[in-house]
Specification:
Blueprint (H helix, E strand, L loop, with lengths): L31 H4 L4 H9 L5 H19 L2 E4 L1 H16 L11 E5 L26 H8 L3 E6 L11 E2 L3 E2 L15 H8 L5 E6 L5 H7 L2 E4 L20 E6 L2 H11 L17 H5 L7 E4 L10 H16 L3 E4 L8 H16 L3 H4 L5 H10 L4 H24 L2 E5 L15 E2 L2 E2 L11 H5 L3 E8 L5 E7 L5 H14 L10
Parallel strand pairs: 2-3, 2-6, 9-10, 9-11
Antiparallel strand pairs: 1-3, 4-5, 6-8, 7-8, 7-14, 11-15, 12-13, 14-15
Length: 499
């Protein structure tokens, strides 16, 4: 359940003085562009105060999707009639004086790896195009309980297996900043929908960067919480690798804190889910984190970064120094975990599809099918070696967080690449390994640490870049505090692509 009666609506106390005043006006006075790029917390505030009709917001949302989605291809399925009916019921509920919930009337997109009752969960895969969900996932159910209204399903690469969003079932999703580029993946449809002004919130999942990659490339905020923070399920089988997490794509850090307050907390469907934090995340944003000791790694000891991206990263890191934090370069390299992570991902998906794999294999994408075949050859010795590498990674980060409060890195080493892929094989003319295009994200799935990406400006080509903020395990609150502090010092969420 969501926090319900907890005071989560005192947003204006946490914003700068010049942003605190919200005039009492009708939704008819709001230009459509202004309305559809407002953050979720502000829209919910307007709805709760009866300054904005949830029915009108939903109408404008669906109009925006109809106008923009044919170009972007962020949404692959809609429940427009049901969403309008739910918005109308909420309008009646508010008129009668009933509390509508923290996410009152907020339109939400759900990544097509997650169940929404009565909608297909295709996983972006042809064999599952008729896979009807019989109930909501835990995360979706909690969003609904908080007053959110599910608009539809957002595109994802087949089983979320690549860092760009393309599949043979629904096609290519494009970046709102440049339609020839990818919004990233695997939560690319969700990130594109948020950046393009279609919805203010969308769900994502992250096993190797699948929230942070598209948030970075699309100019949104995204957080991969600590493993277990938001429960998975219900599902036919539990995850085996402890690398997958659920989280949001948002227009502001406040939106992400509000989202986590409504979705975090243990659930019987997921035995590895964590208890609800003692203090709401929105409450933590009211508190200053104090002077932090921050380590900055420009390359984690092995990565190459596009020159103009690195210039933006260094500028963002300097902002933390100007805010009064102590920032030191960290030269300690991480162990090479690329093969261990790749093997675990293949093994996890092979296990999930095991009963159907031989039957559906001819309809799977060729690269995906080959990856799943490789998982069948993993031996006990291979699994033991993977855990040894994971242990080494844990020891390095254990030592790091004994000396530092946060770790900063680039989120992505490049700007967004071609919408149809493949990922770049070189950076500034120098070759990179296969996983060099996502060098900074997947290690923290293997380790389980919370990590967020925040927009830090545009490259020379006019495409978003991001800074990754990694915190100690279970310190999602500290990651959010640092991201929020940066957002206040260097505002980014008033700049969106003009479509």
């Amino acid at each position: 359940m969501c926090l319900g009666t907890v005071e989560v609506f005192t947003f204006f106390e946490m914003t700068p003085k010049d942003q605190r005043q919200t005039a009492r006006f009708s939704y008819k006075d709001l230009p459509m562009k202004s309305l559809l790029h407002k953050p979720a917390w502000e829209l919910a505030e307007l709805i709760r105060n009866k300054d904005l009709s949830p029915l009108e917001l939903m109408k404008k949302t669906l109009e925006r999707i109809e106008a923009v989605n044919p170009t972007i291809n962020a949404f692959v399925a809609l429940r427009a009639d049901q969403a309008m009916a739910e918005a109308k019921r909420m309008e009646t509920q508010i008129a009668s004086g009933n509390a509508p919930g923290p996410l009152a009337g907020i339109p939400v997109g759900v990544k097509d790896l997650e169940d929404v009752e009565g909608m297909m969960t295709s996983f972006g895969s042809i064999p599952y195009k008729d896979n009807m969900a019989k109930q909501d996932s835990v995360q979706v159910a909690r969003l609904r309980q908080a007053g959110a209204i599910i608009v539809g399903k957002t595109n994802t690469p087949e089983f979320g297996f690549t860092g760009f969003t393309k599949n043979r079932l629904y096609g290519v999703t494009r970046n709102p900043w440049n339609r020839e580029r990818t919004p990233g993946g695997s939560s690319g449809g969700s990130a594109a929908a948020v950046a393009a002004g279609m919805v203010p919130l969308a769900t994502g999942s992250d096993a190797g960067g699948s929230i942070r990659i598209p948030a970075c490339y699309s100019g949104c905020f995204g957080i991969k919480p600590t493993f277990g923070r938001i429960p998975f399920g219900p599902s036919d089988r539990l995850h085996m690798t402890r690398t997958w997490t659920l989280g949001p794509l948002t227009r502001s850090v406040l939106d992400a804190a509000l989202y986590l307050d409504c979705t975090a907390g243990d659930h019987p469907a997921d035995p590895e889910s964590l208890s609800r934090p003692s203090s709401p995340y929105l409450e933590t944003l009211k508190r200053q984190p104090g002077v932090l000791k921050i380590g900055f790694s420009p390359d984690l000891g092995y990565a190459r970064v596009q020159e103009d991206v690195m210039a933006l990263v260094r500028k963002a890191v300097a902002t933390f120094e100007r805010m009064g934090h102590q920032v030191d370069i960290w030269n300690g390299p991480l162990p090479d975990v690329s093969q261990a992570w790749s093997d675990l991902m293949n093994w996890e998906l092979c296990g999930q599809l095991n009963e159907d794999l031989e039957k559906i294999r001819p309809e799977l994408g060729r690269t995906l099918a080959q990856s799943l075949d490789s998982a069948k050859d993993l031996s006990f010795h291979d699994q033991f070696s993977i855990q040894k590498i994971r242990t080494r990674l844990n020891k390095v980060l254990w030592k790091f967080f004994n000396n530092f409060d946060l770790l900063l890195t680039p989120t992505m080493p490049t700007e967004a690449f071609s919408a149809k892929g493949p990922p770049p094989a070189e950076i500034d003319g120098e070759p990179i390994p296969l996983l060099g295009a996502v060098a900074f994200t997947y290690p923290f799935n293997l380790s389980g640490h919370p990590a967020a990406t925040i927009p830090i400006g545009l490259t020379d080509s006019g495409l978003p870049a991001g800074l990754q903020i990694i915190g100690p395990r279970h310190r999602d609150d500290l990651v959010l505090q640092a991201a929020y502090q940066y957002e206040q010092a260097s505002p980014w969420n008033d700049h969106w692509p003009d479509i």
